[in-house]
Write a structure and sequence with these properties.
Layout lengths: L2 E2 L8 H11 L8 E3 L1 H7 L3 E5 L9 H9 L4 H6 L1 E4 L3 H13 L3 E5 L5 H9 L3 E4 L5 H15 L2 E3 L5 H18 L5 E5 L4 H10 L5 E7 L4 H8 L22 H7 L5 E5 L1 H15 L9 H7 L10 E5 L6 H9 L2
Parallel strand pairs: 1-7, 3-11, 4-5, 4-7, 5-6, 8-9, 8-11, 9-10
Antiparallel strand pairs: 2-3
Length: about 325
């Protein structure tokens, strides 16, 4: 029987501060860099929180390390199963290697080659599904966990993951950019947004969630009033924002998000090119949804200083060539 890794405690600021203390000295404190070009475009001071410079190339290592620290002795012995579009898988692979825990990571057939090779290099058992989309791949992964009576760890629908992925990140942002009152976040399963918003909404703040227009689980969930946990697969290079939102994550994040910006594939790829031209950073398409929302004006009017979260850099050379050269 599958052991679903969900902490019994709710997402609280206490759990967030616990995660930040645990992660201290285990991860990089990534920089918050001013963006003069975006500041001029949007009319307020803008900073980029560069989680693309994090260990394993994304913020997902935060939740992976913290969640694996919560495993029981029996769970550690049997190992874990997870599903990932790539970055969570790299984080779990890294954390599992550090903890001496066996990890099986199931990925969609559309996974970026750089992310796949990164997981393999870290020693994980990586299994590629027959499905291009995240949601179908997660069902397959949960089936493996049930068959092997192993713990399934969600990439986003787990309070410890939310606390570390979004909450510990928010603590750094608030310490490094104390004047910021608007926060522009990528949204896939909702774990980053849930943790981040829980922390920053202790004071007046505007949260803008950014998604792919063809896979707008957050927008659909807000319209329906309940989590849209599954969506048909779409063809996109931004696999981390494809698929449904977590039920637990939406329960936390839904009441706290102020606006949703929906961006197209072309806008996302243009944002990758913009980051290289204006900041000389290569970022992955998933991370570029926030930049795309800013460049397109879909973030809406900003009246106070803002932080844009850049979530990851894991993209293959073939994908970069396609984005930059169209081949």
């Amino acid at each position: 029987m599958e052991r679903v890794a969900r902490n019994k405690t709710m997402l609280t600021t206490e759990l967030i501060t616990e995660s930040a203390a645990f992660l201290n000295d285990r991860i990089r404190r990534t920089p918050a860099e001013p963006s003069p070009a975006l500041s001029q475009l949007l009319g307020v001071p803008i900073w980029l929180k560069l989680e693309s410079m994090q260990l394993t190339g994304s913020f997902k290592i935060r939740g992976a390390l913290f969640r694996l620290s919560k495993l029981t002795a029996n769970e550690r012995r049997d190992g874990v199963v997870t599903c990932s579009a790539g970055n969570h898988g790299k984080g779990i692979a890294y954390a599992a290697r550090e903890a001496g825990v066996r990890a099986t990571i199931c990925v969609p057939s559309s996974v970026d080659r750089a992310k796949y090779e990164g997981m393999v290099a870290l020693g994980a058992d990586v299994r590629v599904s027959e499905f291009p989309g995240y949601d179908e791949t997660e069902e397959w992964a949960r089936g493996i966990a049930r068959e092997q009576s192993r713990t399934f760890i969600s990439a986003f629908d787990d309070y410890a993951v939310m606390a570390a992925n979004g909450g510990s990140l928010a603590i750094e942002v608030c310490e490094d950019v104390p004047s910021a009152r608007a926060f522009i976040l990528p949204v896939g399963g909702g774990g980053l947004g849930a943790g981040f918003a829980t922390y920053v909404k202790q004071q007046p703040a505007t949260i803008i969630g950014c998604q792919h227009i063809l896979s707008p689980a957050l927008r659909l969930s807000l319209d329906r009033g309940s989590a849209v946990t599954k969506l048909p697969a779409v063809e996109t290079m931004a696999g981390g924002v494809e698929g449904g939102i977590g039920a637990l994550a939406f329960g936390v994040f839904g009441p706290l998000v102020d606006r949703v910006a929906l961006v197209s594939e072309d806008e996302i790829l243009e944002a990758v090119r913009w980051m290289l031209a204006h900041h000389q950073y290569i970022i992955e398409p998933t991370a570029a949804v926030t930049i795309a929302a800013c460049l397109s004006g879909k973030v809406g009017k900003l009246t106070e200083p803002a932080v844009v979260v850049i979530s990851g850099r894991n993209v293959s050379d073939a994908s970069v060539k396609k984005i930059l050269c169209g081949s």
